[in-house]
Amino acid sequence: MEVFRWLNDQLLRMDWLAALVRLLVEDLFGLDMSSRIGGSLHFFIYDVIKIFILLGVLIFTISWVQSHFPPERTRRILGRLSGFRANLTGALLGTVTPFCSCSSIPLFIGFTGSGLPLSVTFSFLISSPLVDLASVILLASVFNWSVALAYVLVGIVLAVLGGTLIGRAQMERHLEPFVLHSPVLDIPQQQLTRADRARYAWEQVREVFGRVWMYVLIGVGIGALIHNWLPAQWIESLLGQDRPWSVPLATLAGIPMYADIFGTLPIAEALVAKGVGLGTALAFMMAVTALSLPSLIMLRKVVRLPLLATFVGIVVVGIMLIGVLFNAFAYLLI
User: Fold this and answer.
1) SS3 269
2) Measured between alpha carbons, how far is 251 from 136 in angstroms, rounded to an integer?
3) Hey, which residues does 303 pair with through a beta bridge?
4) Which of 59, 182, 218, 258 is most buried, taking the most CB atoms under 10 A from its CB?
């Protein structure tokens, strides 16, 4: 147990990095860590470096695994399943795709156009930006493994239930016609060498970094601001755990924003440190990643308004319920 704790602290929390950054702030910059400027600078440098190190390693590893499961192979696997197993597989597939909500929509179109049930494709669409293996590791590094695993569990449950409800509503008629008539190519996959897979994985790392670096910097910057400059009393009065409106407010506030989970985690970390309920912070994070306004605008080009409204309604209610549950049982996780 002690060995596991030490590995967790050094490899995930990167206590060694926090100590190095502390030396940098105190000795090189001559700032007091207890001051607002010193504390903000330490928070920013430490979190940015930690997130990028973990992100690079995780995306490379996940992409290497993904190279064995190209879209056509994945489609064939899903096409052999039905009912709950198909929805669960679609949701689990989303957990191994490091895509933001906007990047998931082209795959959603491809899967739907290939004839997969709407319930399966929506289970994928919900889980892909919401729960991925990289976010699990980052959540564990910020909070702990109990929070990370509980988050994954409820995220998959939401994806499966959401997809199931949309499937039972039989809303295929609300898909735009071009989606159902998208050409599907079934090209035999060539055997990739290790060098090919490494090249693919590295390209994915570069692509993800290019897409998220700005949001990581902005998110960590906001987290540093909340952590060291905003009064705890002000935040608690607005989003405190005892405020009945905190979870709905955090969920609705997150929808207009756009960021990957990697950019919202530092904000959630800072909010919890200021006394905001764990469920409230996670609800904000989930709303930003799963229901960002740009992704909804893109999705509107693919589905008609009744289906879009059903999708948003199911996910919003699900996120709020998850937030309330996390707030109620946070004492078991932290």
Assistant:
1) helix
2) 20
3) 175
4) 59
Are 139 and 148 in contact, with CB atoms under 8 Å apart? Answer: yes
d(CA 256, CA 65) in angstroms, rounded, equals 33
248: left (phi > 0), else alpha (psi -120 to 50), else beta?
Answer: alpha
DSSP letter at 333 equals: T
Tokens 């998959």 correspond to what residue? 156
Sketch the domain layout of the chain as residue ranges: 68-180+215-332
Q: Which two tokens stand for residue 222?
A: 């906001």
User: Which amino acid would we find at residue 278?
Assistant: L
**Can you give 129-180 as a three-state secondary structure string?**
HHCCHHHHHHHHHHCCHHHHHHHHHHHHHHHHHHHHHHHHCCCHHHECHHHH
What DSSP designation does 291 have? S
pLDDT in tens, 213-261: 887 888 888 888 887 777 767 676 677 766 788 899 888 888 777 666 7
Please tell me the chain's helix, strand, coil percentages from 3-state DSSP, rounded to the nearest 5: 80, 0, 20
